[in-house]
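Here is one chain, start to finish.
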Amino acid sequence: MLNVPSRDTDSRGVRVQGLAIRRWLATTPGRMRLASVLLVAVVLTVGVTATLTAHSRANAARAVGLGAAPQLLASERLYGALADADAAASTAYLQAGKESPDLLRRYDDDLASAGRDLAEVGRGVGTTTEAGQAVADIAEQLPVYSGLIESARANNRQGFAVGAAYLRQASTLMRSKILNDSTVVYAQAAGRLSDGYARGTSGADVGALVLASAGALLLFALVQLFLARRVRRLLNVGLVVGLSLVVVALGSTLLLVASEGSALASARRDGSDAVQTLSTSRILTLRAYNDDNLALIARGNGAAYVTDFDALVGTLGGADGRDGLLAEASQAAGRTGSTRDVSDLQSRFTVLDTAHVAVRGLDDGGQYQSAVEAAVTTEASAAAAMDTALPSQ
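Its structure:
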């Protein structure tokens, strides 16, 4: 006896053109409809992926250009202004009653600049981060520092030896706390910039776009092969249009990504990296010169400052400035077109180191006043020449 399906069994499930969905999908029209749905889905997927990739790169470039880079520059200016203020304060102290008005103005300008940069940095880091706490600490400590400097000046003008203690206390506060907090601020800004560059040059989103496009092209090829075999049609208008959309989306997005990636890589190599190298070299040069001043102010108890000077010289570039940060600074300046400003960077560094040796020789030989005179004239001029050759950004 034949086993005939009942009407209820036949009517179950979705039916298309009188056929069960599975049987309809086995027909040529069914397969073509299914292929059409899949093709539309992959074209949309490629379009969405391309849009997200372009949007992600644009956001990364915007974050670098409008957020992270200005924040890093403000952090560098803040650190440089603070270091320069400390150097100017120690130099003015050594001049004892005949301070240069330009030097005093430089100190005041540095503190004013640090205040402006601190406000700019504070707006970018918020109040809940480690950098935000560091900004608050700097704002609290700067008035204490300037108060100690004023006490040192007042006592120094009257010939009181306690002025040296005030100055050393101020410099210790600057080095151990204020500049350390500035380093925290700088590190966060540098991290944000590095993250922005990483997002802007990442290959993950491009890889997803390429994979989606490759899948779409493969599906188009399979559908075209199917149509060629079933209906003997070499080209299909719908397929050609869809394929064109995929190729255009892929090509235009890859061109955009390549262009923005190249611009970001160039900006990092010739922009932020170069600025960081030049700025760091300038700050260490200022600190080294300040070490000599503080060693003199300590009057025989400044061995730690001399040791720090020697360590900084090694970091900067050795005895002739042809290695370390100064060599990198020269290369960076060459990439950014600033070779005129740093063409004689190494020779200026040698002059500064020679001046340092002369000051140390005079001080160690018991000629304190001559050492002070050399520090505030010859060595100060050499440090100023180095500062000019390492432009602040």
